[in-house]
Write a structure and sequence with these properties.
Elements lengths: L1 H6 L1 H22 L6 H18 L5 H23 L4 H20 L11 E4 L5 H18 L2 H12 L1 H6 L4 H27 E3 L6 H14 L4 H17 L7 H15 L3 H28 L1
Antiparallel strand pairs: 1-2
Helix pairs in contact: 2-3, 2-6, 2-9, 2-10, 2-11, 3-4, 3-5, 3-9, 4-9, 10-11, 10-13, 11-13
């Protein structure tokens, strides 16, 4: 077990940071907000943490905290600006926000390292600390999925007019989704950067949107568990497909496309449907036995 762990420690860390990135996109989707601002938050958190370490000589976790909080504040302000947008217009606006972060990093001079990026931000982060951060984030999201709050969030997503009629402040819930998305995306960016010791503008780009969406689509969009399943598949699938050698990317793309087409609710949705059918069958069998006895 220990040999396997040390051989795959980088993949495990990447799985956890990818989970945080996927959650930063999944959270607003659960609130009915088509926002990709979590990717921009990833960049703000990464650059914020790296700048705090390199320029201000802060220690690791204060640097992570300042990066994550800066991302939460900026994305919350973005939410105030774009709160009237919906659907594709919201998606385009938040993708533009991510691209603006990348452009600012390129033109940030010595502060951001310009096009070459910022180097030397090596934090002291171990696996236990990353797991604690992920567990804390998941605990908050489990709370948002709990019965009362979870039902209000579902109503905000599925029928905003009904939510308003029921006295639910839709705008407040949607702004809350921006703050959560920014904080989680900032944490993902800061931890990833301080693990790698570097960040460049090329890392904060549209490809991260694809990474996060792939994890969510394959795993499931309605629960943090779906994002976890998607992150595991996204990070580990290339390793599992290494036996096909040069056809690895083709096989990977085919599997992801097939999952998107044939698993509309993700792997988690398939598992839930199978569990529901099993419980229904068991319940019918139990009722049949009781009827025979009576």
């Amino acid at each position: 077990m220990s040999d396997w762990y040390y051989m795959n420690v980088v993949l495990i860390q990447t799985t956890l940071t990818t989970l945080l990135l996927a959650l930063s996109i999944q959270v607003p989707l659960r609130f009915g907000v088509f926002s990709f601002a979590g990717v921009g938050a990833f960049g703000i958190g990464g650059y914020g943490g790296a700048m705090a370490m390199v320029h201000l000589e802060w220690s690791t976790w204060p640097a992570v905290a300042v990066g994550a909080l800066a991302a939460a504040v900026v994305v919350s302000l973005l939410g105030l600006v774009v709160q009237r947008l919906t659907g594709l217009y919201m998606g385009m606006a938040t993708i533009a926000f991510t691209l603006i972060i990348s452009v600012l990093a390129v033109n940030g001079g010595d502060a951001t390292g310009g096009a070459g990026g910022l180097y030397g931000a090596l934090g002291e982060i171990n696996m236990q600390q990353i797991v604690l951060v992920v567990v804390a984030v998941v605990a908050v999201l489990v709370w948002t999925e709990a019965r009362g709050l979870g039902r209000r969030i579902d109503t905000v997503r599925e029928d905003p007019e009904l939510a308003n009629a029921l006295g639910i402040d839709v705008n407040r819930y949607r702004l809350m989704s921006f703050a959560l998305s920014g904080l989680i995306g900032g944490l993902a960016g800061a931890i990833t950067t301080l693990l790698r010791s570097t960040i460049t503008p090329a890392e904060v780009n549209f490809h991260l949107v694809i990474v996060a969406l792939t994890a969510i689509v394959v795993g499931g969009a309605r629960s943090w568990l779906g994002a976890l399943i998607g992150a595991v598949i996204f990070v580990w699938l290339p390793t599992w497909l290494s036996f096909v050698q040069e056809w690895e990317k083709v096989a990977y793309g085919f599997i992801v496309a097939a999952a998107a087409i044939y698993l509309p609710n993700g792997v988690l949705g398939v598992a839930k449907d199978a569990l529901h059918r099993y419980r229904t069958r068991e319940e019918r069998a139990r009722v049949a036995v009781l009827q025979e006895k009576s």
